[in-house]
Amino acid sequence: MTRYWLGVVSRDHVRRGVKLGFAQANHGKRAAVERMSPGDGLVYYSPRTGMREGEPIKSFTALGTIAEGPAWQVEEPGGCFRPWRRAVDYDPAAREVPIDELRTDLDLTSVPNWGIVLRRGLVELSAHDFEVISRAMVGQ
Q: For the chain, how big is the Rg over CA atoms in Å?
């Protein structure tokens, strides 16, 4: 059964993941990426350009499908950070879309205080929301 995920990550970090073909969520925690399976849909929402800094953008910034293969752990330079990742096939045609353009059409934003849910870092989306976001990002 296909599931759909929304990762909440700064745009700078999303762009790095897209360039290198991986997903990472919740500051590299294993449990987050272990919830994902090959074939699942993934969309990233970026509140800001940088982590805790940069300009607010409040936009969907990348769209992809979880690729075959298990999650793996890497060691970042310096040896202090060892995040878990999953391979992702990102859609190169996806464009950034401000969440405000879609808020009235999404289940996610239909409840009061919906922004609090995003603080989890990785949220399961409904198939409907993934479809609405995907259509907006790739124009289909």
A: 14
Confidence at residue 140, expressed as pLDDT on a 0 to 100 scale: 59
For tokens 């919740």, the residue is: 26
Distance between CA 43 and CA 23 in Å, rounded?
10
Please report where in the chains the tokens 């879609």 appear, as a residue.
Answer: 102
pLDDT digits (tens, 9 = 90+) for 67-113: 999 999 998 777 778 899 999 999 999 999 999 999 999 999 998 88
Among 91, 127, 108, smallest CA distance to 3 is for 127
Instruction: Tell how strand 22-23 and strand 53-66 pair up.
Output: unpaired
Our separate counts of H helices and E strands in the chain read 4, 8
CB neighbourhood size of 61 (10 A): 24
CA distances from 55 to 24, 77, 135 (A): 22, 27, 25
Question: Across-strand partners of 50?
Answer: 53
- Cα torsion at 25, 26, 28, 30 (round to 10°)? -90
Rounded Cα distance between 46 and 1, Å, is 27
Q: How many CB atoms lie within 10 A of CB 123?
A: 18
